[in-house]
Amino acid sequence: MLKAERQERILELLGDEHTASVRSVAEQLAVSEMTVRRDFEELAERGVVERVYGGARLRHGTAKHGSLVEREFTHGEKARLHAVEKRDIARRAAALIEPRDTVFLGAGTTIEQMVSALPEVPFRIVTNSLAVFSLLEQREGCDLCLVGGTYRTRTHAFVGPMAEDAIASLGIDKAFIGANGVTDGSIFTSNAEEGRFQRLVFGKANERYLLADSSKVGRRDFYGFFDLGNIDAIFTDAALTGEQRFELEQYTRVER
């Protein structure tokens, strides 16, 4: 049984019983208790289950409208989560960039992973991320534009009216933006100002790409900023379940 299938089965068991012990799940799935503990930890990290003594229980609200992201992680915390998956997602997304493109790179640790994978061709980069800008400022062969505004230390991003005014006059060929959650055909972030800015960027771009590892699928956050059906593709990873992929494909192309 693949990990994604096993974890989907765990959620089914929790949906039936609400709470399950490590031992009972291990016996029902014919796997080791250590494997179940690792699955519980990963599902808890994704916000789908809650660890309890000796087992886990399904978080309230997970089965309907997506599980709620309970708090906004810091930039450092996000960088440590799903790092391997983010690098692979970023590499595949960066392959879309062509010579002389004007490309927008949003804030977030998945987008930051695109920097090392960018093609060695002449093109223009626009970003509101100080972290992305810092990684690119020594790069030669491309034009680099930093959009200024009100600085959010939690995400290292510039947002607000000044940032929106700056982006409103620009032409963008391809926009690459991350998300905190994707569910029910909507793309979510934690902050309204960042969401409004990202909506404006997607609205300006000829091609729109969402980068979100599979832990973000089925989750919602505070602010829904764009419709999934209006993007060209979502780049995610192989841990996406068949059910999750089917849901996403009702709205857009899935690249994993």
Fold and architecture overview:
This protein is of the alpha/beta class and 256 residues long. The protein has two domains: 62 residues, Arc Repressor Mutant, subunit A; 181 residues, 3-Layer(aba) Sandwich (Rossmann fold). The chain is 37% helix and 26% strand. It has a seven-stranded parallel sheet, sandwiched between helices. The protein has a three-stranded antiparallel sheet with strand order 1-3-2. The protein has a three-stranded antiparallel sheet with strand order 11-12-15, with helices on one face. A hairpin with a 4-residue loop joins strand 8 and strand 9. Helix 2 packs across helix 3 and helix 8 packs parallel to helix 9. It is elongated and about 60 Å long. The two termini are 20 Å apart. This is Lactose phosphotransferase system repressor. It comes from Enorma shizhengliae. Keywords: DNA-binding, Repressor, Transcription, Transcription regulation. Repressor of the lactose catabolism operon. Galactose-6-phosphate is the inducer.
Biggest sheet, spatial arrangement of strands: 7-6-5-10-13-16-17
Q: How would you sum up the major sheet?
A: 7 strands, parallel
**Total DSSP E strands:** 17
The DSSP helix count reads: 10
Order of helices and strands: HEHHEEEHHEHEHEEEHEEEHEEEEHE
CATH class of the largest domain: Alpha Beta
The CATH architecture name of the largest domain reads 3-Layer(aba) Sandwich
